[in-house]
Isocitrate lyase (Alteromonas australica), 531 residues
Amino acid sequence: MSQYQQDIDNFATLKAASKGTWEGINPEYAARMKVQNRFKTGLDIARYTASIMRKDMAEYDADSSQYTQSLGCWHGFVGQQKMLSVKKHQGTTSKSYLYLSGWMVAALRSEFGPLPDQSMHEKTSVSALIEELYTFLRQADARELGDLFHKLDDAKANGGDVTAIQAEIDNYETHVVPIIADIDAGFGNEEATYLLAKQMIEAGACCIQIENQVSDAKQCGHQDGKVTVPHEDFLAKINAVRYAFLELGVDDGVIVARTDSLGAGLTQKIPVSTSEGDLAAQYNAFLQTTPVAGAEDLSEGDLVIKQGGQLVKPERLPNGLFRFKENTGFDRVVLDCVTSLQHGADLLWIETEKPHVGQIAEMVNAIREQVPNAKLVYNNSPSFNWTLNFRQQVFDAWVEEGKDVSSYDRDKLMSADYDSTELAVEADERIKSFQADAAREAGIFHHLITLPTYHTAALSTDNLAKGYFGEEGMLAYVRGVQRQEIRQGLACVKHQAMAGSDLGDTHKEYFSGEAALKASGEDNTMNQFDV
């Protein structure tokens, strides 16, 4: 017996026990509503999606071609449409996640208006967006299952294949998928991190990404001025997130430890070393220092530390920050990653300045010398000029191979004049295979684009506005939007149904029977799209 039929029987038993007071309740309708609301709480979602991520991680460890992907979404509707599209075109939601970008929360969801990616937005905006995304994904499930129930009723009334439709219902694949959620640098101390992590998990997050920047000096990973914290401070926040997962019963929750050390040349404080070679000593070894022979080498307020048996003065800037030695980013990244994995993190995020498989692989291979199963979440960032980067990579490879590049200007390879050249074609092929190549060669388990839907919203709006307010008028919308929606089979062309009108009509029938006042009658203009 299917779960659906069991639910019908259980509700029928409950109805019988009500001694006639539930005569307005139809057990099958109740069973349908239960199926359409599979996840009752955010914690149900977090536990379900955590198990998916753990399974996906194990499958990637066995076969690197089984990497996962996501796109950053800044609104529930955007996330819903993304997953509807994935399921429509790929036939499954497997290996497809959502990414919640702190950058987009700051830029698009703050009550202050657009903000830079500096942890200035309300921290509760993050958990609110997680809840919103899952509300829209669950509504997508309810809408599709509602259509299946209508098909089931038609099959029962007209002698159709009831068994086949019932199988579709019983084996229905949800649109609810894991969200990798950005908690920035924790929005404060470790207690603040714990409290926000709890909110995020309760909203449905099974995976939290946290970075090793100073919380109150947080910068976007692709901007200058980044300041990192000592390992002890970062590990305390990793512990705080793990405690939040364990307290809420999400025992296999996933933590992504992000390091910005490759591009960060500053630290806010010097940690206290208690034994030679401990983590604090290793961190301090990267500081830019000058030898101190005596008090005459010091100015008022200077700091002195003992390092390798000698007294040295760390270089301190006018703002009180300390500078790292140049060209230590690689080694700091490796130490950050190994330390995080050895102290509770599950996945790594290395913020790089360009998308280069060889550069990423070099760091990952160094990490894997100490943690063999280390794997990455990687930002396929819109902050990279992908076209120019890959054309220059091909140019440099050709130079190394001794190939003639005299017809190309390396500094101007972004020009459309090169679009149909052999170099541009090869660069595009490298971009196309970048994710598969990096998953295979550089240990990348999950590829994401942080803020693609920020850019798609801007581009599509620009194209529509250009035509609509120009010579095309209404044709700009009809030809560029609606006609494409119809021909490409987008469900949201019936925007009333997407917003829940059909689902609401069904519920009205459940609640009110023939007295229900419905919106989807013959005069509903949405019927024009039944073509």
The chain has 18 helices and 14 strands. The first helix runs from residue 3 to 17.
